[in-house]
User: Which sequence fits this backbone?
């Protein structure tokens, strides 16, 4: 697929440094509010936001209510032709100095607004697409056995999450409470002692499908609008006790954090790469050997309290988002505008590329050193920030922004730093 002609790397009249990750090559969409104001939709450009809820009816020639609701919902549902036209229009406004006088009045400093969830999350599904992550967990909890389950290389494994607890970056995460099984076999109820992170990419569905309709690999970008960052917080001790024989439930459903900016797929053309070799060859509806490549060369950075603890790379993910969408719909389950599905933990082959604390500390047995302190799982007051960039045109970097969250104590319980914890597992 050729790069979109509007995705020019430089030349914006908006003041910003030349290597800004939110330059013309990116132009992500989000939703924001000012002091006591209603929600508005916006496009990030450098350290500013173009208020498209205000600008679109004033300057655009068509579909002047596209952003009237202040979210991306209507844009998502409009489909690829509108996505392309909108991106080209905004790129023209911000890239051509002839528009400066008419457009500049709709620019706001990003520091002056509060970001909101950019779209209404309809459904949320989470996958398990990293072979390195799945194998690490297998070695941890099934030593001496095959690390991957028998089905793992045949289909993308996933579970259905809770759309109602997807929150925007910056929203504090309250330590979850639930049942835990101690090392002695006793059942207790209390705050999770093994609170973890999962660094992931999320994919945002725009165009819906009817019941019974499947989405082929080649139709992926006709339904998926863009990409965002996800932290799928996980309570490993609650999860370990509940997830057999079914899948994750309370250990995952308490919070999933989402970056406020959705980067259009068209901004990631230069980041598309071939996925790793698959063995065995996938069944036909998942066989992408003759399809356009949907691996993505996205580089993440995971920081705990300001210290980078991991740098996972998405290019090594075994299953692509196109395969995940094909699998998610092969049974005829319908898509809705605003469906969100996430990649699962992004982990690489080295210790410093693991995307979760359970891997980074090998289930707590190999603590990290963060600012002189030995750390395993999350403590109250910890802040986790995940950022990411990808290659853009002409040597630029496409920014995916950040997903940030701070752990708050459960209102009924506190967990002292370094508290002992029960042995935990994972899906």
Assistant:
């Amino acid at each position: 697929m050729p790069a979109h002609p509007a995705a020019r790397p430089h030349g914006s009249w908006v003041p910003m440094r030349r290597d800004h990750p939110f330059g013309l090559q990116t132009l992500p969409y989000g939703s924001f509010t000012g002091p006591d104001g209603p929600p508005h939709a916006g496009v990030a450009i450098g350290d500013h936001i173009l208020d498209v809820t205000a600008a679109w009816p004033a300057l655009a020639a068509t579909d002047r209510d596209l952003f009237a609701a202040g979210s991306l919902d209507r844009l998502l549902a409009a489909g690829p032709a509108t996505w392309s036209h909108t991106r080209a229009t905004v790129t023209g406004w911000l890239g051509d100095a002839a528009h400066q006088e008419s457009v500049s009045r709709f620019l706001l400093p990003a520091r002056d607004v509060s970001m909101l969830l950019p779209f209404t999350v309809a459904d949320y599904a989470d996958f398990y697409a990293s072979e390195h992550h799945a194998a690490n967990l297998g070695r941890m909890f099934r030593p001496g056995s095959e690390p991957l389950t028998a089905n793992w290389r045949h289909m993308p494994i996933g579970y259905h999450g809770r759309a109602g607890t997807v929150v925007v970056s910056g929203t504090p995460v309250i330590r979850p409470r639930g049942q835990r099984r101690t090392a002695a076999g006793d059942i207790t109820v209390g705050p999770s002692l093994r609170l973890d992170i999962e660094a992931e990419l999320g994919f945002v569905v725009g165009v819906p499908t009817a019941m019974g309709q499947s989405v082929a690999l080649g139709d992926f970008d006709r339904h998926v609008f863009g990409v965002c960052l996800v932290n799928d917080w996980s309570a490993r001790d609650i999860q370990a006790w509940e997830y057999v024989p079914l899948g994750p439930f309370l250990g995952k459903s308490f919070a999933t954090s989402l970056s406020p900016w959705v980067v259009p797929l068209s901004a990631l053309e230069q980041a598309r790469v071939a996925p790793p070799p698959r063995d065995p060859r996938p069944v036909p509806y998942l066989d992408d050997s003759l399809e356009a490549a949907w691996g993505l060369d996205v580089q993440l950075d995971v920081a705990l309290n300001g210290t980078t603890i991991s740098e996972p790379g998405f290019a090594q993910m075994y299953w692509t988002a196109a395969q995940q969408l094909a699998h998610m719909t092969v049974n005829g389950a319908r898509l809705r505008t605003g469906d969100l599905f996430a990649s699962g933990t992004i982990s690489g082959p080295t210790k410093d590329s693991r995307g979760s604390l359970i891997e980074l500390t090998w289930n707590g047995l190999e603590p990290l050193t963060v600012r002189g302190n030995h750390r395993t799982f999350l403590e109250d007051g910890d802040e986790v920030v995940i950022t990411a960039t990808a290659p853009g045109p002409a040597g630029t970097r496409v920014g995916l922004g950040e997903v940030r969250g701070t752990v708050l104590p459960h209102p009924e319980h506190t967990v002292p730093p370094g508290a002992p914890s029960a042995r935990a597992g994972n899906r």
